[in-house]
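Hello forum,

I keep getting stuck at the same step: I have a sequence, I want structure tokens, and every attempt I make locally crashes halfway through. Rather than fight my setup again tonight, could one of you with a working pipeline run this one for me? It's a single chain of 256 residues.
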Amino acid sequence: MSSSNILARLVTNDAKLIKKVFKAASSLIDEAPLKIGEEGLSIRALDLAEVSMIDMVLSKEAFEVFEFNKPIKANIRLSDVLNLLKFESKSEKLEMVFREDKVTFRVSNEFTRIFTVPIFFSEDKDLPLPKVSLGNSFETKVSTIKHLLESGKHISDYISISVENNTVLLSAKGEISEYQVILTVEEGNLINPVLKEASRASYDLKRLSSIVSSLLFSENVKVEFDTDLPLKMSQKMEDVPNSTVTFYIAPRMEKA
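Reply #2:
Ran it on my machine without issues. Output:
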């Protein structure tokens, strides 16, 4: 890096991927702590209610250039970036240059766009990940969960996940109505299952809908849960080694 006031410089040939990263973070938080270091570009944060968490890593392999003087953590308002990254495509080149009080985005393809947004730096310690052991895991299509959430919102404000007879039941239940999606290995919508019979937990539908809408990195999502424990949803980023996005959602506790 030639300029002494440049703290980090990142260049990728896939501007759309960076937009997806910021969009995923915006499903939970308004300001994202961007950490730049040997691991790559990462974001780990709680939502304001401290009910859900995002843990995302975009490895250095996603970038043509990944330069930094020392590890940094810069907070950026996501709406500032997403409002200006509306039209980026996969074929466009994106450069991000971090300085002491701002980050400059340079997007180029048919023509070049340059915009600058403010940042501020933090020395806060990294948040720890939830220390839970989840006995159930499976993969399914993101579209399947979206279908449940879209239909279930007319019935309830939460969804339940349960295991019965080696199947997974996703359900939304109201006072007089109920909607279910049944996942089975035979139908091909329950992939790589590890299941513990009679497990059951419920989660906030609105919060889950926001998260699922940002799962844009591949067709499937891995789901992990256990009775009255947090839900973990994770996706690997296609064509980007060692890059994942993971969400945790606290369970909805049944009233006594």
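The two ends are 60 Å apart (CA to CA). If your local run keeps crashing, start a new thread with the error log.
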